[in-house]
């Protein structure tokens, strides 16, 4: 903005005065005639334009409920990318790289995990996770004890279970200590048997080509927490941790931040327009193209199955800032037309004077962001697609919907108003 107001005018003073006006804005030029004709179409077909705009808005609103929130990084790459091929190999053969940790901490000084009932509680939690069939293999101290119990009973498969008595359990624990095997159990139990860890591979080898989505993971966590709350063991504190927990917690944060950022940006833009024209009515009408562009943004996300993530959550606020220029430009041109002229002529004159620069500015932005559609990195591709569609929506909103709405409502504040310095 600073360069446009200072550097550019300074450069223009060194240039020779052009022999003729820029052809695009000359009276009688094709662009001039096109926007003059468009102004007449808007006045004659304003009902059709508004009905179509409302229809598109409803279509987009209906689709908003289908927008998913997904913070998984695997979506960022194409299916045939080397990164995802390596990930699928690890997932199919080694259970993946991501884990969910369920920690058990003894709060009762008279209790530890040498107690058979405490181990049965861990086993109960572990069996619930396995029965869910969403994730891959699990590992806990219980699995080691079951394996040892089966070895003691000559590898009988039916003996793969916890010992029946405390005495049998103590024999297995003593066997671990004598063989110094307890040092190998550091990832599932502490040396004092006061803290235990259940490791859950968050990848199912049978679903290697279709990893668990963040929505499924969030639903699992909600059910898991409910199960733990309904099956508490007195003296044992249970916590759920893991990297994927962070990604899930970001889902609610993204939704809240998206709604908050849109609300704040629209409010700020509303007051800027209202202050510029010294009229709250101008502020309301100035938001129409912006809201139409936002509808197209969220409609595209819904019907193109583009989830809300770190990148797409920024687009709406950026679009508000880009779209407000067009609204102010048209409203200023309209307010400067002669008030003695009929409303239909004023709409046409304002569209001719502002439509050409608005069209070229928007088209340039759309063309610039469309280059991102060739990116192999999906977030960049989605960013270019959604910004382009949103700018197209703002362009349609300002050269079609806004003039038609002004002609329909005929707001006195806009018809009689002028920009005040």
Number of helices: 16
- Helix fraction by DSSP (H/I, runs of at least 4): 55-70%
Backbone structural class: mainly alpha
Strand order of the largest sheet: 2-3-1-4
Task: Report the C-alpha radius of gyration, rounded.
Answer: 32 Å
Largest sheet: 4 strands, antiparallel
The termini sit apart by 20 Å
**Mean pLDDT, all residues:** 81
Write the layout of secondary structure elements.
Layout: H1 2-5, H2 7-12, H3 30-44, H4 46-64, H5 82-94, E1 99-106, H6 116-132, E2 138-139, H7 141-152, H8 166-178, E3 195-201, H9 214-230, E4 236-241, H10 243-277, H11 280-286, H12 288-303, H13 315-335, H14 343-370, H15 378-409, H16 412-415
Antiparallel strand pairs: 1-3, 1-4, 2-3
Helix pairs in contact: 3-14, 3-15, 4-12, 4-15, 9-10, 10-11, 10-13, 12-13, 12-15, 13-14, 13-15, 14-15
What would you note in describing this structure?
The protein has 421 residues and is mainly α. It is 62% helix and 5% strand. The protein has helices at residues 2-5, 7-12, 30-44, 46-64, 82-94, 116-132, 141-152, 166-178, 214-230, 243-277, 280-286, 288-303, 315-335, 343-370, 378-409, 412-415, and strands at 99-106, 138-139, 195-201, 236-241. Strands 2-3-1-4 form a 4-stranded antiparallel beta sheet. Helix 4 (46-64) packs across helix 12, helix 9 crosses helix 10 (243-277) and helix 10 (243-277) crosses helix 11 (280-286).
